[in-house]
Design brief:
CATH topology: Glutaredoxin
Largest sheet: 4 strands, mixed
Oligomer: single chain
Structural class: alpha+beta
Shape: globular
Strand order of the largest sheet: 2-1-3-4
CATH architecture: 3-Layer(aba) Sandwich
Order of helices and strands: EHEHHHHHHEEH
Helix content: 40-55%
CATH class: Alpha Beta
Number of domains: 1
Length: 214
Amino acid sequence: MKVTAFVDVLSHWCYAAYPALEALRATIAQDVEVEIVFAPAFGNANVPMSREAEVWFYERGALAYGRQLTSAWCEGSRQSSTWHANAAVLAAVNAGADPLRLGAQVSRAGMSDGRLIGREIEAAGCIAELTGMQPQAVLDAMRSATVVEALDAGNARLAALGCAERPSWQLVNGAGDHSVLQGVWQAEAILPLARALLEDERAYRRAGPMPENL
């Protein structure tokens, strides 16, 4: 069975969803492949809203997930993009970093510590500090065709599922059953569904192939 999570590391809803990802790994990781796909909102464009609007979105979100985060990383539509932070994380993941751990660290840097990682140079510097990579090496990897194409592909895969929100989830078991969830962040919603699909897969394995005489 496979669970694919589509995330943007500068989405506050994705930040709220990290406990769900961690719970998936902790409870059913031996039987489930967890794939994290980085899909930056707005592609390689700047955030199409004002800093004041972003503050309001965070305040509204806090009413749902019960945690006050900062949107200080977003300096407005002329300066900030979520692309750079996602590119930086993916560059480090391609070099061997853990996507869940590093993604959470970068989200924390932006949305708890208020680092200006909507800027390309700041995003590269943040990853360099967290991983020990050289800042220029991170920057070069961020701009590479490998990373750019992977981020574009992540957004294309998300759109092909009919989804536009991050996080979104695709759950597929070995029996061919599948489910797609858009915008869901609570572990209480995702884990029971994953377990149900996994139990069906296990049941099919116990049953074995259909007898040839049927």
